[in-house]
UniProtKB/TrEMBL annotation:
Binds 2 zinc ions per subunit. The lineage of its organism: Bacteria, Pseudomonadati, Spirochaetota, Spirochaetia, Spirochaetales. Belongs to the helicase family. PriA subfamily. CDD domains: DEXHc_priA, SF2_C_priA. The keyword Metal-binding applies. This is Replication restart protein PriA. It comes from Spirochaeta lutea. GO terms for molecular function: 3'-5' DNA helicase activity; ATP binding; ATP hydrolysis activity; DNA binding; zinc ion binding. Initiates the restart of stalled replication forks, which reloads the replicative helicase on sites other than the origin of replication. Recognizes and binds to abandoned replication forks and remodels them to uncover a helicase loading site. Promotes assembly of the primosome at these replication forks.
Length: 668
DNA sequence: AGCACGCCGACT
DNA sequence: GTCGGCGTGCTC
């Protein structure tokens, strides 16, 4: 097998920003194969690397450059950790996301990158494993999904309409065909419930990749998957890389969830990886949500994804009543309506949840008479008020304008910035309802270990009257004793300097109302807002779902935002303000240069646009100044090449870092 | 990313 | 005289 005469050499990549492969001599007797990990000396350091290739001859370039390879130190894995198709996927990722292969491979092995994840384990209602009989609609959906060995589907239906059952049945059929399944769930939320039902149905032929596994447990599960012992894999984002042989189905549950996008390099989107894998490996892709991303909805409308609609709410539970409350003229942050309903709920012996959006973005400028809000004339995103500079600033393009003294819509002088933080609301609730048990659940209060579980179980037992929570309460938690859900200020999301703000506001209200009526027949959602007529709020509150998407897609089309364009964001970060800006400007100049070049050489690639450099909405994080540039264009190739050419060979000064985000989900 | 080399300013 | 800033370049 092995040539007895000659030696062997390995092409190795490292998880470092080195876009190069390094050659090492394989010591006699080491059974090194492509796809194994090894330890090797690079410079003065000993690092772990990934073997991509094995040669039986010393590569010519090394002979020419007179380089004598060092010996590999040790072999970490006996058998390859990566299949050739995974290495190929890593190659594709590295070009797609401007990362290097070593970094991509590092992101693919679970635990290779520690992902922080709060798992609200065990908080969902226990899954009842009875004979589940599918409704006619569900049956039809499964049949359509399984009618062909491949294809893209979207199971679209409200909370409680039985999406999970469709997924599970499709998974069963796929396994019966002898093919493997990957079931992706968002980082927070229903992990536990789905994991339980998968385990109970597929037993030892399933693998659950959750954050609590130790590195060696993860590796063990990975090996079981490679060997084909585990045929159904459940996990968050990185589970999309599971080395399932003969992959037949990828499920992306709660497709709209932002946690599918990686927050660090390589900044991949699990949905995008899933699409690529499904098409490369001839598998089906099934996504699902009650509130699809606008991108996915548009693909459905275009017929590129087949829609599987689930219209009926199964297993009882009525639609909750959704009432919009105008905050105009209201003193403080709780309207009389909300106060009345809180009391009413307490009198009935039921519980309430009050939703607060993230603080920090409470500084939007609006008219208290008519609800008019300041927007950038060029980007159509909310302007952020900067008190220190006495200006309203667009965080997309850098546009700025002095704050208005009167409302341009109605002339009222009652204009100003508004918003309230978590502490403020808590204070007011405590003041209004002395003697009630009120608890707050947000990232601050969760830092103490165990307090999250504790608060949740106390709430479940009915020991808490009002739970004040942020996003984390919005998803995946269902409490039988809840009658009232109050969204304290639905506008907050609307004023985020982000083109997805309407989508997120709509999604939040819709998701929340899906929760409220689940157990209580008189479930009630109160949506407090300064803009009762704002489209996403009005449409979500009256369940005019398709109206929202139609309108939002039209707006995106007019403004040339995704899905009608692709976007790449370049973020320059430095402790030094001047350096951050000068590096950003330098990149912008190169971008402009390459934009012109591309325009002249390949006009068929269409127009591209460069927005910025502008201060990022979070202008300073951790003492780092943040400046970003947004590049958009209808043809992805054009945008991608332009950025590639513009960062090629650019060396930024000490302490300046560049982060590139392809198809960013958040622009903060 | 690290870690070396190397070149100019202010300290025991 | 040295310590230490940080720009530059390299890692098989």
């Amino acid at each position: 097998m092995e040539p007895a005469d000659g030696g062997r050499w390995a092409g190795v990549v490292f998880n470092l920003p080195l876009d190069q492969m390094y050659t090492y001599r394989i010591p006699e007797g080491l059974p090194v194969l492509p796809g194994v990990r090894v330890r090797a000396e690079l410079g003065r350091r000993t690092l772990m690397g990934f073997v991509l290739e094995v040669y039986t001859e010393l590569p010519r370039e090394l002979v020419e450059k007179d380089i004598t390879p060092k010996d590999l130190l040790t072999q970490v894995d006996e058998l390859p950790l990566f299949t050739p198709s995974q290495v190929e996927l890593a190659r594709w990722m590295s070009t797609m996301y401007y990362s290097n292969i070593g970094e991509c491979l590092g992101a693919m092995i679970p635990g290779g990158k520690q992902e922080r994840a709060v798992v609200l384990g065990g908080e969902e209602e226990a899954y009842q494993e009875k004979d589940v009989r599918l409704s006619e609609e569900q049956e039809l959906g499964v049949r359509s999904i399984c009618s062909s060995p491949r294809g893209m589907y979207y199971v679209y239906g409200m909370t409680g309409s039985g999406k999970t059952e469709v997924f599970l049945t499709a998974a069963r059929k796929t396994v019966d065909e002898g093919r493997g399944v990957i079931y992706l769930v968002p980082e927070i939320s229903l992990t536990r419930q789905v994991a339980d039902s998968i385990r109970s149905r597929f037993g030892s032929s399933s693998a659950i990749l959750h954050s609590r596994l130790t590195p060696s447990q993860r590796l063990g599960e990975w090996r079981r998957i490679v060997r084909g012992e585990a045929r159904v894999v459940v996990g968050a984002r990185s589970a999309v890389f599971a080395p399932v042989p003969d992959l037949g189905l990828i499920i992306v549950d709660e497709e709209h969830e932002g946690s599918y996008k990686s927050g660090s390099s390589p900044r991949y989107h699990a949905r995008q990886i899933a699409m690529r894998r499904a098409s490369a490996e001839g598998a089906r892709l099934v996504m699902g949500s009650a509130t699809p991303s606008v991108e996915a909805y548009h693909l459905m409308e275009e017929g590129k994804i087949s829609r599987v609609s689930l219209s009926r709410r199964l297993a009882g539970g009525d639609e909750p009543e959704i009432r919009v409350v105008n905050l105009k003229g209201v003193e403080g942050c709780l309207s009389p309506d909300l106060i009345t309903e809180l009391k009413q709920t307490k009198d009935l012996g039921k519980q309430s949840i009050l939703f607060l959006n993230r603080r920090g973005f409470s500084h939007f400028f609006h008219c208290r008479s008519c609800g008019y809000e300041a927007k950038c004339p060029r980007c159509s995103v909310g302007l952020t008020y900067h008190k220190s500079r006495n200006a309203m600033v667009c965080h997309y393009c850098g546009y700025r304008t002095p704050p208005m003294a009167s409302c341009p819509e109605c002339g009222s002088l009652d204009v100003g910035y508004a918003g309230f933080g978590t502490e403020h609301v808590e204070e007011e609730v405590r003041r209004l309802f002395p003697g009630w048990v009120i608890e707050r659940l947000d990232t601050d209060s969760v830092k103490k270990k165990g307090s999250l579980e504790q608060i949740i179980s106390r709430f479940r037992r009915g020991e808490i009257d009002v739970l004040l929570g942020t996003q984390m309460v919005a998803k995946g938690l269902n409490f039988p004793g809840v009658r009232l859900v109050g969204i304290v200020l639905a506008d907050t999301g609307l004023h985020m300097p982000d083109f997805r703000s309407a989508e997120r506001t709509f999604g939040l209200i819709t998701q929340v109302s899906g929760r409220a009526g689940r157990y209580t027949p008189d479930g009630l959602v109160l949506v407090q807002t300064y803009n009762p007529s704002s489209s996403p709020i009005a449409q979500a509150s009256t369940s005019r779902i398709s109206d929202f998407y139609t309108q939002e897609i039209q707006t995106r089309r007019e403004l040339g935002f995704p899905p009608f364009s692709r976007m790449i964001r370049l973020l320059v970060r430095s402790k030094n303000h001047h350096r951050a800006w000068s590096s950003a400007r330098q990149i912008a100049v190169r971008l402009e240069h390459n934009r012109r070049n591309l325009q002249n050489q390949q006009p068929s690639l269409g127009e591209t646009e460069i927005l910025g450099p502008a201060e990022a909405p979070l202008g300073m994080v951790n003492g780092n100044f943040r400046v970003h540039i947004l590049v958009t264009g209808a043809v992805f190739q054009a945008v991608h090449r332009m950025v590639g050419a513009s960062i090629q060979g650019v060396v930024h000064p000490r302490g300046v870092y560049l982060e590139i985000d392809v198809d960013p989900v958040s622009l903060l």
